[in-house]
Amino acid sequence: MKKTIWALILLLILLAAFPLASQAAPLKKLSWRAEYFENPGLTGQPRLVVFESAFGHDWGLGSPSPEIPVDGFSARFTRRMHFEKGTYLFTLSADDGARVWIDGKILIDAWSLGIKDKMQAKIRLEQAGDYEVQVAYFENTGRAFVNLDWLLLAGDDDILGAWKGDYFDNRNLQGSPVMSRQDSAISFDWNSGSPAAKVPRDNFSVRWTRSIYLKAGHYTFRVQHDDGMRVYIDDKIIYDSWFDQEVNYEVGIVPIKEGFRTIRVEYYDHVGNAVVHFSIDEDPGDYDDTIPTPDTPGVFVDNRDSGFTWYGPPPGVGRGGVGSDFFWTYNKTSAPVNTAMWMPNLPSDGNYEVYAYIPGDRATTGSATYRIQHFGRVADRTINQSRYSNEFVSLGIYYFDGRGNEFVVLSDVTGEAQGSTQIAFDAIKFVKR
Predict the structure, then answer these.
(1) How many angstroms separate the CA atoms of 99 and 110, rounded?
(2) How many Å apart are CA 200 and CA 202, to the nearest integer?
(3) Which domain holds residue 185?
(4) Is 69 found in the same domain as 28?
(5) Are residues 227 and 275 in the same domain?
(6) Residue 293 lies in a domain
(7) Are 260 and 325 contained in the same domain?
(8) In this model, does residue 109 exceed pLDDT 50?
């Protein structure tokens, strides 16, 4: 009997020397290690450590557990996850503050009081593998919630923002496509020819698909086609003109809910000319300029660099900005007088995010239109310079071929009353994605 008691005591001593399962390292790629603290600063030892299979909490006016107060608590969530090589978008919502790291690199920093609604940041992962994702969170008073989502925007061989085009050797999108490729835009006039050698010049069809993030609102779309065309948003048809016809141009308006929407465009050609164009307003090269992005080094072209060209009378020169000064001028309503061009020396082809630096002075226009010439395409991006001060603003991500004939142009035409606002011209930054 005594031997049994002593054996039990020895077993308890041995068990005490090891951490409990809930205090061990997180289960690899299977669960989140959640550490909850009784204070808002993640200080000291966590009061509660648990493993959670999914991320996302809305505690309302309550708390994660009876051991944790309803106000003034904090939490740390950690998990190792596998990501393929590519560009990802992370979206964070919280009340109150939160931060997100990928392998120790800060991705989103929103450590302040108040509601954070869908704060977003993009990151390019250059190799496939396991990465540590960590989220820190604190609650002050009132409602408590935190949520993190992520989406693969483009894989290793994808052009970010491109349409996936599947081409068929028949008019009805039947069977397997004879060719699939990425098209930077749906804007083709093949005349009486064909899209490619594998596709016949007549009696062919194409299906393009693309997912983009759109805010809630009513969007204007434009189509032009010969012969038939159909357009879907999230599998709901918004335009149907599937019959033989001459070149037809139509404009429509469609309400869209906020979020990632999948647009599908279908087209066929019978005989003769083959023409197809599709565009939708409010598509700012994938994401609008309110999305915060980490300050990443890139290829700079400043207003004093050799890649910068000024066309027009001598501009005003302001103090500050990148390189200690910037150019500015008063706006024009319609005909341009002053124009600036930034031509980068890119090291290679690929996806680049384009940023414009907006100084804290002389940038009062609400309608500065930057024209991005890239990969034989032109994209216009209009921003409100008066909303920003001494910061880079994203103009979107575009594919550049790196051959030296690509650039960004900004003129003094804003459409506002003549001379009523000022427009600033400083540095443009190109960041490889």
Answers:
(1) 6
(2) 5
(3) 163-280
(4) yes
(5) yes
(6) no
(7) no
(8) yes
Provide the b/e sequence for 4-15 (b: ≥16 CB within 10 Å).
eeeeeeeeeeee
Looking up residue 71, the CATH number of its domain turns out to be 2.60.120.260
Is residue 395's pLDDT more than 70? yes
Asked if residue 8 is part of any domain, the answer here is no
pLDDT in tens, 3-14: 444 443 333 333
Name the domain count of the chain: 3
pLDDT digits (tens, 9 = 90+) for 261-301: 889 999 999 998 899 999 887 543 333 333 334 455 789 99
Statement to judge: residues 84 and 195 lie in one domain:
no
Rounded to whole angstroms, the Cα distance separating 315 from 134 reads 48
One-letter amino acid of 392: F
* 259 plus 215 within the same structural domain: yes
Kindly state whether residues 409 and 428 are assigned to the same domain: yes
- Position with higher pLDDT, 296 vs 77: 77
275, part of any domain: yes
Q: Which string of b and e fits 317-336 if b means at least 16 CB within 10 Å?
A: ebebbbeebbbbbbbbeeee
